[in-house]
Amino acid sequence: MLQKAMPEAPKALSVEGTVVENNDKALKFIEDVTINADEVQKRVLSKILSRSADTEYLRRNGLNGCTDRGTFKKVMPVITYEDLKPDIERIANGDTSQILCSHPISEFLTSSGTSAGERKLMPTIDEELERRLFLYSLLMPVMSQFVPGLDKGKGMYFLFVKSEAKTPGGLVARPVLTSYYKSSYFKNKPNDPYTNYTSPNETILCLDSYQSMYSQLLCGLCQNEKVVRVGAVFASGFIRAIHFLQKHWGLLCNDIRTGTIDPKITDPYVREAVSKILKPNPKLADFVEAECSNGSWKGIITRLWPNTKYIDVIVTGTMSQYIPALDYYSNSLPLVCTMYASSECYFGINLDPLCKPSEVSYTLIPTMAYFEFLPVTRENELISTISEPTTLNDEEKQQLVDLVDVKLGQEYELVVTTYAGLYRYRVGDILRVSGFKNNSPQFNFICRKNVVLSIDSDKTDEVELQNAVKNAANQLGQFEASLVEYTSYADTSATPGHYVLYWELSVKDANSIPPSVFENFCFTVEESLHSVYRQGRVSDKSIGPLEIRVVENGTFDMLMDFALTQGASINQYKTPRCVKYAPIIELLNSRVISSYFSQKYPRWSPGQKQWCTQN
Ligand code: AMP
Questions:
Q1: Nearest-CA residue for atom 6 of ligand 1
Q2: Is the domain of 24 the same as that of 118?
Q3: In this protein, which residues make up the domain named GH3 middle (predicted)?
């Protein structure tokens, strides 16, 4: 029975049966694999290792064809992206031998995690797409247990593709969702009531973000009565759509009234697809106009799309900063986080999707990959770093535990072994065990290791921030000034959000530094940040210009005094390089002398820096 429930390369559940039959099949699958989690994991590992026994990587590490857990754990190192980089570069440069995986690498998925300022490149194979699709096919059966009637209406999802590049060896490199939306699986979706979206494929596949957003909103508004759920991948993307509507509802209403598409929408495929949906509808135009111009945007989602039952967006991790805004715009509709996934591998799903955002837990699906867990201990919350070495010695390696052996309440870093050729790879996410579904643990997402700043999919760690600030602060010397202390804050009070740096300076003459110099410092910091940040600024426009706020002398001493009153130890106190706690932000803001914004866009182009320079 389990054999049947765990196909080698899972196909999305059949759509041939009735909705109820398919839902039951999916739920039964979840039941089976969570009961037999350990057995499934053992088989997944054995399958991966036997398939890839002849790969250079497994041979190099001396696995010698063994497929058992014991030998695997003894022999194989626990690694990070940096360890794998030379192999990845060979693949990117065109080496097609079996380096990491026995199956041909079909493309690279570009992660929002970066290495040396560039997106990490995750090799993938064709069948992984089916595995990802399979996880998607479990979501609606789970959701339908809690919200009836979802098969009767439409979903308004704001989905986007990003630009892709080619590696010197000719492999495509693009984000995982772009790869999925461009695949025939997505484009030729069968007539499934759960993938009935308001956005035609052409609007999603349009690379121009303005045209894509405009046309998706237009189609969503035209079908407003039919919409039963709305969403985007991350909360930031959904907020961006609302902000876009705030700016462009006049044009959208005009199109709805006349049944014609604004001339700024020039993509012929988009125009044709939209024209099949858009019909002159003055009544709807009046309604949208009345709602959008009434002054308050509170509850705008439920007003314009009155049958919406929930918002499907990820609000766990750094995305939790958007919860208050989503509550405001939706009159507190349920916020539903359905899944936890990455470019490396799709991990798991939320089996209790109507729970509060703060209680979301993900059940890792044991067929997706082989999972291990490295226990972590956290230092003081204010510092918010994770103390653990980057390279693990033998003793530390022994601490890794299997999926069914994790302990309730304990925090772990996720380590995966995938079908696509990652072995004991540290994903960098910290998870806490919150409970169990049968024998499978469920996890709260705690944080991405070391990430201090994030607005959209950008993930900036302390070292990147430090280097970028240093590059700018180095220029203070010529003004007989220096940077005494700094911290940062991801300000999402307006859309798009932006990075704020609080700088305390030691300066002889405060007037000796003209504003244009500070504006240039902002620009230098932006230029020094990684490519995901610069892409967000330049291409996606999902991040606003970076701001430096100069604070009065003594501000950082006050910050330390504050931390001490909160129980920090004076011996251990370090200035937090990022602040999130409202009283601290208030304190910093109350001491601001002047503030400056970057006036230029940093450099950005698709692909990796070294590929661009090769061309
Ligand atoms: P990427 O490699 O760009 O696809 O980003 C994957 C990362 O996004 C994961 O490793 C997590 O850090 C984060 N992420 C993905 N899904 C979730 C989720 N449901 N909640 C919080 N963070 C998530």
A1: 342
A2: yes
A3: 362-448
Mean of the pLDDT values across residues 331-335?
97
Write the residue with the smallest CA distance to atom 23 of ligand 1. 340
Same domain, 240 and 256: yes
Check pLDDT > 80 for residue 295: yes
**What is the per-residue pLDDT across 210-263, written as a single tens digit (0 to 9) for each?**
999 999 999 999 999 999 999 999 999 999 999 999 999 999 999 999 999 999
346: CA distance to ligand 1 center in Å? 9
| Count of structural domains, the chain | 3
**Residue 11 placed within a domain:** no
Atom of ligand 1 nearest to the CA of 350: 19
Same-domain pairing of 545 and 416:
no
Q: What is the distance between the alpha carbons of residues 351 and 370, in angstroms, rounded to a whole number? A: 20
Rounded distance between C-alpha atoms, residue 264 and residue 209, angstroms? 12
CA of 277 to the centre of ligand 1 (A): 34
Instruction: List the alpha helices (DSSP H) in 101-200.
Output: 126-144, 176-181, 184-187
Give 507-539 pLDDT, tens digit per residue: 988 788 999 999 999 999 999 999 999 999 999
Would you say the CB of residue 361 lies under 6 angstroms from ligand 1?
Answer: no
472 and 566 share one domain = yes
Domain final residue pick, 425, 448, 471: 448
Distance from residue 365's CA to the centre of ligand 1 (Å): 16
- C-alpha 410 – ligand 1 centre gap (Å): 20
Provide the phi-psi class of 567: left if phi over 0, else alpha when psi is between -120 and 50, else beta: left
Q: Are residues 225 and 159 in the same domain?
A: yes
Are 75 and 188 found together in one domain?
A: no
Please check whether residue 6 is in contact with residue 40, taking contact to mean a CB–CB distance below 8 angstroms. yes
Where in the sequence is the domain holding 465, given as residue range(s)? 452-597
pTM (two decimals): 0.90
